[in-house]
Design a protein that fits this description.
With 451 residues, this protein is an alpha/beta fold. It folds into 3 domains: 75 residues, no CATH class; 92 residues, no CATH class; 267 residues, Rossmann fold, CATH 3.40.50. It contains 12 helices and 21 strands. The strands form 4 sheets. Strands 1, 2, 3, 4, 5, 6, 11, 12 and 14 form a 9-stranded antiparallel β-sheet that branches. It has a 7-stranded parallel β-sheet with strand order 9-10-8-13-15-16-17, with helices on both faces. It has a 3-stranded antiparallel β-sheet with strand order 7-19-18, with helices on one face. The longest helix has 18 residues. The N terminus is likely disordered.
């Protein structure tokens, strides 16, 4: 390993010790790298096994990254999400404790969820677990128990031996999910000048699961925003991500073109604040938010966050879809070599990736056969909670474009069709002919046919 540059070792160390989402958030701030990045070695052993030629070929795209730059962002990564995050309420009491679990994912420490039938609650109460809450998802006809376990039972294998057979298939960790956009320094218009109109001026209803929205901003003075929190109100809750997403739909000012100026937005608040660079959303909040939006009769729900495959979240997403509600989700910003992220990778969820004004794929966008569509999501102009205009990049900025269009066409075409049929008139094929793992079925241009 004597021939490897010092910055390579630092980069590998970051890759080994850090969750994929947190790493992507930090790497998003590094100097511009080539669009096509090879999959990097993630362990010291894999680096040692590479031949000299393979090492040079694999690591050459990082040749412009200096040692000081990587050291700087390695230090920042610790600030983004420490190994253990203790979340306190306004009184200073620890309410939640977030840790790293299997495969580098984040979760609330020793917390689990399970779907039960009414007659199963007594069985659960007799076990050596502490029940935290009972969640009645009435619109989805599900009952979920949130519970904490002693350290010796803190694994799926141990819980399968402990829980009754009727519960074993639906146990899941209390995983934490992360938002999928970052501010960008590219202070230039995102382009696509022919896309300067709103998607529609119909008074549609749209659901979003995100951070709290700074609805008091004058940009939203004529907007209809109904917010509901699914977290402990004493926790610090962020505004930035949800405000930026809502700004795409509703913010009105010089230089801004809202996609849905007359929409009624039902906004579920699910994120707590880590720090200025990061926020997390637990599964328990996500499933309650989905249940609320279905109960309100929402036809399209936007979810601009990603995380692991979770059995409880998967079941709830399936119940939502059975009600006829469409979920649009950000594909993720973990990079072209990353595995599929959820909920975007679940069957029938509309997974959206991001492109720039030149129709080039966002450099940190996830790829895979589950990608459905691409939309403008790089250097997109929107708003901050401070009231300043900003430019944001990421698949979180692309998903709202598709959500807006689907809301419009569903209002205009009450006859049931598939999502593909609804979106076909607004689709421009990119990349390989037909569906591909980079752009999906192609680029959505929501203004080509409407109005």
């Amino acid at each position: 390993m004597n021939g490897l540059p010092r910055f390579v070792l630092l980069f590998v160390a970051v890759s080994v010790i850090s969750p994929a989402i947190a790493l992507a958030q930090v790497l998003n701030e590094l100097p511009q790298l080539p669009q096509e990045l090879p999959q990097l070695p993630v362990t010291v052993e894999r680096v040692e096994n590479l031949s000299d030629d393979a090492t040079r070929e694999t690591l050459m795209p990082l040749r412009a990254v200096s040692v000081s730059t990587v050291e700087q962002f390695t230090a920042q990564l610790t600030d983004v999400i420490p190994e253990v995050v203790e979340l306190t309420n306004s009184a200073g009491d620890v309410v939640l404790r977030e840790v790293t679990v299997e495969n580098g994912w984040r979760a609330l420490e020793r917390e689990w969820l399970v779907v039960i039938q009414n007659n199963n609650i007594a069985q659960l109460q007799r076990l050596p677990v502490s029940i935290i809450a009972r969640q009645e998802l009435t619109a989805l006809q599900l009952t979920v128990i949130r519970f904490r376990v002693p350290a010796q039972y803190d694994s799926r294998e141990a819980l399968r031996d402990l829980l009754p057979d009727t519960m074993q298939e639906s146990i899941a960790r209390q995983h934490v999910y992360f938002a999928q956009s970052k501010p960008t320094d590219r202070q230039t218009p995102s382009g696509m000048d022919d896309d300067s109109k709103f998607a529609c001026d119909t008074p549609v209803k749209l659901g979003v699961i995100d951070t709290r929205i700074k609805s008091s901003l004058w940009y939203f003075k004529d907007a209809q925003i109904r917010q509901r929190s699914f977290l402990d109100r004493t926790l610090e809750q962020p505004f930035a991500h949800g405000t930026a997403v809502a700004g795409l739909w509703l913010a009105q000012a010089a230089g801004l073109q809202p996609l849905l100026p007359k929409a009624e937005l039902f906004a579920a608040e699910v994120f707590y604040q880590h720090n200025e660079l990061s926020q997390g959303a637990p599964v328990s909040a996500l499933i309650e938010a989905l249940n609320w939006l279905v109960g309100e009769g929402i036809g399209v729900i936007n979810m601009s966050m990603t995380g692991p495959d979770n059995p409880i979240l998967k079941l709830v997403v399936e119940r939502v879809q059975q009600q006829g509600t469409i979920i649009v989700a950000a594909a993720g910003n973990a990079g072209p070599a990353a595995p599929p992220l959820y909920p975007a990778a679940y069957s029938d969820v509309v997974a959206v990736t991001a492109v720039d004004a030149k129709q080039q794929i966002y450099r940190w966008a996830n790829r895979g056969l589950h990608i459905d569509y691409a939309a403008l999501g790089v250097a997109v102009k929107t708003i901050r909670p401070s009231g300043e205009l900003t430019y944001e990049s990421g698949t979180s900025m692309a998903a709202p474009v598709v959500s807006a269009l689907l809301s419009c066409v569903l209002a205009d075409q009450p006859i049931h069709k598939s999502v593909q049929d609804y979106l076909a008139p607004y689709l421009e094929d990119l990349g390989e002919i037909g569906p591909d793992p980079i752009f999906g079925r192609g680029l959505i241009r929501p203004f080509r046919s409407l109005n």
